Structures are given as C-alpha cells and as structure tokens.
C-alpha cells in the first residue's frame, strides 16, 4: 500500500513566540483596513492531452488589505498569518506571490512523488483504464479572516485538505487570534488563567457531550464513560487545545481528527459562550 503523508510546505502547525519588527516603520492602522480574498484553481496532468492522472489545486487565501501605504499593522498581521499558517519561507511574499508559491510547491511535490513511477508504468505497458487512483492528487487550502471578540482581535482559520494517494484524505485545520492593534499572535497563555484550566476543561467537556449526542443522533451520552464507549477520549483526557478562537459570542475550541477521537469520528468544533467562560479569562 502506498504510504500517506501530508505536505505542509512547512505548512501549518507550530505556534511561534513573539514577533520582532526591525527598522523605522511607522506603525499605523486605520479602520478602513478590511479582509480581502485571492482564489487560485488549477489542474496539472501527468500526460499531455490526457485528463488523468491529474493533480487538482484550489487555494482560497484571505488576507488583510492595508488601508494605505502607512498601514504597517495590516502588513504585520499578514506576515504573521503567512508565517504561522504556511511557514517562515513565505513571510515576505505578497499575497499574490504566496498563492503562486504554494501552488508551485504542490505541483513540484506531485511530480516528485509520482511522475517517475507513472512513466515507468506506462513504459511497461500499463493501459489507461488500469491507472491506479492514487496517481490522482488533490490539494485544497481554505482560509477565513474576520473580526473577533470586541473587534480588537482578528480571527484566522486555515483548513488544509490533501489527498495524496492514501486510504483516505487528510484534513488539518489551524485557528489563530491576532491582536488588531499590534499584529501579535494571541496565545493560550495570554488568554486562559492556568489555575482555572480544570474548570475550562469542564466547560469544554459539556460542549463535547452535546456535540457527540448531536452527531450520533442520540441523547444518551452524559459522561466521559459514555464518550469512551463510542471511541472518544480513549487515549487522552480533555485539554485546552492550541486551536482556539476568540469569536464574537464565545471561545471556540477546535480538535483535528485523531486528537481526541479516531478518524471516523471526525473533527470537533466546540464553542463555550462568554457568559460561561469569561470568569476564567485573563
């Protein structure tokens, strides 16, 4: 069986610490700065004139459009997004340059993975109708940028979907919260009081039980034992994840597949209302 791996052109997942700005750039941001979106869709083929095998690429990139040339905060925010979501090598690219670079990296990875194997199979007499499905790749990046809590926070999410020939696709999501005034990443340590972690986890558990009952179309699960009976939280206790979002109405905690449950259970997005959690926030 062909092994599966997910390409993260350093893509996506490690939270960096502080952010240093050097030079003498005046930091200003006006209220006119607003989210914008770039879309790129392309398909590449291993054989000229043939529609299969192919690699489909779809990139939706949300970024903050600066209000003016002096709006350095919006540029800081975009650089932080590009660093955290895609990797340090993409930090200084323009939004248009970023999208092109990501697409080119996916194409390069596709050709590196399968082109030589495919050409060898064709040389050895493989017929078009016998081409294995795993020669077909698909990459999707979907992002969203919107105002969060009290309009002092920008919420950013990036969902990276990849099918690279394995038993099933892989999807990984990352949430970010960025200070709208400074452009700095807001971490869990900045938000949650450590002494109240257990109480916060209790609130998350309550929402998890609700969500599992909803997914399974039942109302019989009411405890951790009930969750474990359906395969959830077998290998870990509930915890505050790195993926959280300070939304307008509450804090959303996000768990990717495999983090608290098997692949078949899917991902979990659990929102705790501010009325319940505010007392435990810094």
From TrEMBL:
Top-level taxon: Bacteria
InterPro entries: DUF3298, PdaC/RsiV-like_sf
Boundaries of every DUF3298 domain copy: 189-275
Protein name: DUF3298 domain-containing protein
